[in-house]
Specification:
The chain is an all-alpha fold. The protein has helices spanning 2-6, 16-41, 46-74, 103-125, 131-158, 161-193, 195-205, 208-233, 244-261, 271-296, 301-324; strands at residues 9-10, 86-87. It is elongated, with a radius of gyration of 28 Å.
Length: 325
């Protein structure tokens, strides 16, 4: 690790040829990133894919200009130097390798890439006293700033307001189907189904540690069951609900969280203090479920609240009566 850090060059120590070579390799990397975005989006979001195709073409054009400049000044052999070889040089996070990266995240990352490059070159130009190097860095800063401006122009050319709205709506729908819907089902199951065993145990034993263990077992068990059930019953190909493991993860994790919310207060030794806090947590959980239903599922808030709170109250009452009896 230390040897890797020590082998990196300082930007201030690079020659003009090396700075030019670094710019060429950076343009190659960015063009490749944009093409990866375009291919991933081409089927579902063709308009945005066209934007990224255009941005990749712009990077290719600037790379050709930089190569021509290098050939004129330094010859045919371009030094092999990349971002990771230079200490303090801006780095690209490998977000383009993330299969779950959403449409808005790709757009935001593209804007950040262009602005980051322009800012770096502008600052670098201000830290050199060599006139030729200063001019070169200034030209690169202007080129990167031009990329950012042109990216906005490309978006205006390929994305009308209606097309962007359609793509954004499609991305939101996919997010709801893959993450929100299974997660909401898990949260409801975890919050409601564990009420009876947790509070039955609490009132039957009035032992907070035993109640916590039962609540943890019920929550984790329900989470595993819900996760596997969600992942196994639909592969997402025909339904369009997305990757089964993503849905299973969302459902399983949220089920466990829903149950653990009112199990954790029983780590408090005093029975009634723990029980009152657990009741408050249950109330918050049920209202959170109603809010999520209203925000993402477009269920009227009053109806969602009545359904969730009424159901939760009945299950809680059943657990308390069974435990108290």
């Amino acid at each position: 690790m230390l040897s890797a850090i020590s082998s990196r060059r300082r930007f201030a120590d690079l020659s003009e040829q090396e700075i030019l070579a670094l710019a060429i390799s950076s343009e190659e990397d960015d063009a490749s990133i944009y093409r990866t975005y375009a291919e991933r989006l081409r089927t579902e979001y063709p308009a945005t894919a066209a934007v990224f195709d255009g941005m990749a073409a712009e990077e290719d054009d600037h790379r050709r200009q930089l190569i021509a400049l290098h050939q004129a000044r330094f010859g045919q052999v371009i030094p092999l130097i990349r971002r990771e070889h230079v200490a303090g040089f801006y780095a690209r996070k490998p977000v383009w390798l993330n299969e779950t990266l959403g449409l808005d995240s790709m757009r935001a990352e593209a804007r950040a890439m262009e602005v980051q490059a322009a800012t770096f070159y502008t600052r670098a130009a201000g830290h050199t006293s060599d006139a030729a190097t200063r001019k070169l860095l200034g030209d690169l800063a202007a080129a990167e700033a031009g990329h950012a401006d042109h990216a906005r122009d490309l978006a205006d050319a390929h994305l009308s307001g209606s097309e962007k709205d359609v793509e954004d709506a499609g991305a939101r729908r996919q997010f709801i189907l893959t993450w929100v819907q299974p997660g909401l089902a898990g949260l409801m199951d975890g919050s409601v189904s564990t009420l009876a065993p947790i509070f039955a145990t609490a009132f039957a034993t009035q032992d907070t540690w035993t109640t916590f263990l039962v609540g943890t077992a019920a929550s984790v068990g329900a989470g595993i069951s819900m996760g596997f059930t969600e992942a196994a019953h639909d592969d997402g190909v025909l339904s369009g609900r997305g990757s089964p493991w993503k849905r299973g993860l969302a459902s399983g994790v949220m089920t466990t969280i829903g149950g653990m919310g009112h199990a954790l207060p029983y780590l408090i030794p005093d029975f009634w203090t723990a029980t009152i806090i657990a009741m408050i947590v249950v109330f918050v959980e049920l209202w959170a479920i109603a809010w999520i239903q209203n925000k993402f599922m477009e269920t009227p808030f009053v109806r969602a609240a009545l359904q969730v709170v009424l159901g939760g109250a009945l299950v809680f009452a059943a657990g308390a009566l069974i435990g108290g009896g």
